[in-house]
Amino acid sequence: MHIDSLNWKILKCLQLNARQSSAEIGRQVGISSPAVSERIKKMEDAGIIQNYNALVSPFEVGYQLKALITLRAFMGMLKPFLEKVKTYDEVINCYRITGNENFVMEVILKNQKHLESFIDQLIVYGETKTQIVLSHVVKHNEVKPLKK
């Protein structure tokens, strides 16, 4: 599907606030509410818009720590870890990566003891490295058009 400049404007509006009405988006981009709805539907059908989510602050609901944990899988443990990582409540994002490590996980934890017990579960699958997140520098930045 071709994403023209109008679709990019709609995507920008949705990325800033997906709860905006089609009428509000239409006012911002200069087209009618039904035209906005039709364009959004086409982008959903094409897989460009994948989902609408609520962002929940882990700290406001009681988690004390956020960490990035990399894992370098032991021989024969890559596939078992691929299945196991999906079951951990602590993992909010996990990426398979290139380089010396195989995975990087973004995890939320109650406290330092929780971090220790979580790492104890991971070391069965490979060698880990942990970095504690102090703050967000860039948070959920919007996807922008490719520059030509």
UniProtKB/TrEMBL annotation:
Q: Which PROSITE patterns match?
A: HTH_ASNC_1, HTH_ASNC_2
Tell me one Pfam family matched here: AsnC_trans_reg
| Taxonomic superkingdom | Bacteria
Q: Does the keyword DNA-binding apply?
A: yes
The record's CDD domains line, in alphabetical order, gives: HTH_ARSR
UniProt keyword annotations, A-Z: DNA-binding, Transcription, Transcription regulation
Q: Which Gene3D superfamilies match?
A: 3.30.70.920, Winged helix-like DNA-binding domain superfamily/Winged helix DNA-binding domain
**Does the keyword Transport feature in the UniProt annotation?**
no
Q: In what residue span(s) does the HTH asnC-type domain sit?
A: 3-64
InterPro entries registered for this protein in UniProt: ArsR-like_HTH, AsnC-type_HTH_dom, Dimeric_a/b-barrel, Tscrpt_reg_AsnC-like, Tscrpt_reg_AsnC/Lrp_C, Tscrpt_reg_HTH_AsnC-type_CS, WH-like_DNA-bd_sf, WH_DNA-bd_sf
Protein name per the record: Lrp/AsnC family transcriptional regulator
